Amino acid sequence: MAMGKLANCSRCDAVFVQAVRDICPKCCKEVEQEYEACAQFLRKRENRGSNIHQVSEATGVSVKQITKFIKEGRISVAGSPNLGYPCERCGFLIRAGNICESCLNGLKHEITQQIEVEQRLEEFQRADLAKAAYRRKQNSDE
């Protein structure tokens, strides 16, 4: 049986023997309690219209932790029409992925522009090489 290694908890920085998780047993228990608080809150019909900030305020669980629960699939956004988490780029509330559609399109545009710049640079370099080769040939013919 393999032994775990000593590590610092990513939540509280306490030293613990790490087997699977990156948090200590104490923090693991706290995370489970936070999950239960969120799940119980969202099970109530009157709370299903809550957004992430309202869930955080009502349960005392951080928006970051609720976001993690959603991304892990532990909290479903399917039954909660207003539940989402912030886009990692602009903060707009989204229900899937890491960035919103607008930021995704912006990144695609930036990448396309960068590719075009690199292609133009390559064309200029090829043209310069061709000119240099032509000059060398002209000089050797003289």
Written description of the protein model:
This protein is mostly helical and 142 residues long. The protein has 2 domains: 75 residues, no CATH class; 43 residues. 55% of the residues lie in helices and 8% in strands. A hairpin with a 6-residue loop joins β3 and β4. The longest helix has 41 residues. The model has no long low-confidence stretch (mean pLDDT 91).
Question: Which terms summarize this structure?
Answer:
142 residues; two-stranded antiparallel sheet; 55% helix; mainly alpha
What proportion of the residues form beta strands (DSSP E)?
5-15%
**Tally of DSSP β-strands:** 4
Low-confidence stretches: none
Number of domains: 2
Main beta-sheet strand count, sense and barrel state: 2 strands, antiparallel
Which structural category do the helix and sheet elements fall into?
Answer: mainly alpha
User: Total helix count?
Assistant: 4
Please, what is the average pLDDT?
91
Question: What topology, given as strand order, has the largest sheet?
Answer: 1-2
Using the alpha-carbon principal axes, give the shape: elongated
Radius of gyration: 27 Å
Fraction in helix: 40-55%
Order of helices and strands: EEHHHEEH
Distance between the termini: 80 Å
